[in-house]
Amino acid sequence: MGKGFIFDLDGTILDTRDDIGNACNKALEAFGYPTHPLEEYQQMVGNGFIVLIMRALPKGESERLSEESFNAIFTAAKKAYASHMTLHTLPYKNIPETLQALAKRGSPLSVLSNKPEELTQKLIAHYFPSVPFALVLGGRDDKPLKPDPTRAKELLSTLGLNPHDTYFVGDSQVDMLTAKNAGMIPVGVSWGFRGPEEVEAHGAVHILRSATDLLSLP
Is 142 a catalytic residue? Predict the structure, then answer.
């Protein structure tokens, strides 16, 4: 068995920015709030859907809103996203082929995202139907989100992986901290939402310039 790979989703294997941004903008507009250029959502994602909506609202607005009002906006955005999350989303260049090559080489593959788990699993099934992911996990109300290492450690235990022989691949500070907190090897991608500077600043041991670089990791 080769070294294990755990992948982040948004900004790492799928470019989901436009579908996320359009859904959030639709909810913001429906409740009378200003919207954002889609590129701004690259800095808002990564810490789960609740934090995404908090960041999308005007500064301080989430603290001023009642729980009921905030939940209404959150629910509207999540519903809009769930119903239109494959309109513009695409895998990053060479990702599907590279994942297939890693699997054929004997490397166990899995996904750990802060995106709601049911949406994470639907996206993986839709875009990577022939990639043999061993486990696909997302955000759940009863589990802490990344960079807390709880779910990463659960995943490692379930698959029988040694953290020191497992790469955690992501595009953000959250992912690099998750890797370090769980004792895994932090691998940053340069093509994602945050860029190489962020992953380098937060401890990436390797920084990938293209998806095929995954095949050259030691």
Answer: no
